[in-house]
Amino acid sequence: MAFAKRNPKIPEGINASDDNPLKDFLLLLAGVSGFVVICVTLLVLFSQSLAPYIPFHYEQKIAQFYEQQFVETGKQEGQAPSLKFQEAEAALQELGSILAAKADLPEQIDLQFHLVNDADVANAFATLGGHIFVTTGLLQTVSSENALAMVVAHEIAHVKLRHPIQALSRGVIVQLFMSLVIGGQDASAVQSVLGQTGLLTLLSFNRSMEHQADSEALDALFKQYGHLKHAEQFFKKMSELGHKTGWKEVFYTHPDVESRIKHIQNEMHRHQRTSQQVVPLDPRLIR
Amino acid sequence: MDALFQVGIFVVLLGLGFFFGRRAERKHYASILVREDEMRDLVITTDRFPPSEFLKHHSGMVSGNVVISVDYFKMVTAGLRSLVGGRLKAYESLLDRARREALLRMQDQANRAGAEAIINTKIETCRISGNANKGIGSIEVLVYGTALIPKK
Fold this sequence. Notes:
- Chain A is mainly alpha-helical.
- Chain A has helices spanning 21-50, 56-74, 83-102, 136-141, 145-160, 163-182, 187-197, 207-225, 233-245, 249-253, 257-270, and strands at residues 112-116, 124-127, 131-135.
- A three-stranded mixed β-sheet of chain A has the order 1-3-2, with helices on both faces.
- In chain B, α1 (2-38) crosses α2 and α1 runs parallel beside α3.
- The A-B interface holds A 3-7, 9, 15-17, 19, 21-22, 24-25, 28-29, 31-32, 181 and B 18, 22, 36, 39-45, 47, 51, 53-54, 73-74, 76-77, 80-81, 83-84, 89-90, 92-93, 95-97, 99, 117.
């Protein structure tokens, strides 16, 4: 066998292809993201329809993780709550109990009401384990007990309809799936997922949830007061504020304010009564 | 907002990776083709023993090595590919470039030593940073052989 005189010229394209890598990438991206979207949609549907069957005491156990956080949310940092604040919280708890009685809550659910010392933000939210938060800013916004009751009843309805646990299940299962796909194989990923989605305000409810909660709240309100006057007050104020300042925060947690006001007003017309006595706000709640 | 920011960073990195990675690859291939033609007379074989006409030559070891980094675009493409399987074309071209470049460097060294041929060529590869914290990996190719240098 003779020794070669020259190195042979090897044809291109045997070991590496000259295809445009962008084509390969886009095809892969479309395929994988399509698959992920389908899976996530299915998981969200599953988790939302199954979550209400999670026993409430499990939810309370999950909520214990965040209880410390709840307590700190309520109080101003490094300060013992003032007497006035404690009284207001007690009054809120009383109002909440009255409304809860009208809301046909399942037996296992019990509610805890917390006042949040934040005068700048008018907001209320319900979260895991039947904890309901109302900011002091909200107390300044409402002019009667009826208006406050509407907001509180709305949050009670969220708990009754098990919306917080649905939102948590949705968040956890989607994140879990994503970490499976992306490849975070360690267990700490799951924990950090729980840590993130458990953050109170990250539990976001969708429009139909808000709508359901409104309907339930109006029912409870009608049972309690016999009319629906001032039910739309808070939302109207929020809507005005939103128009004036472009205030985003309320619209994140309570989207679609306009259509909800309409819904409430329709209900008000349906339940029109001659006597519409508005109950004044408990003096302890006046800020 | 936060998510948007992250997506933005991702897209920018992807774009940079694609643009610069592709440009580097084009340039590299162009240079490889030119230099391969230049070195065509310096024969590389994998024969273990020198042929009869080279028996009086000196011998000496020559080697060439190359490290090429994976760009972000290739990494993401490969990541997606690893979900569904198939040829990792993005990495194949890297290995191809690295092997040919390493051979060229070995030829260059042999050429400077005045060699006429290289026998007993071996090729090895390994990953330097591929396993480190899932960072962007790189490919290393090492080739070595025995250069046959005529006596003066």
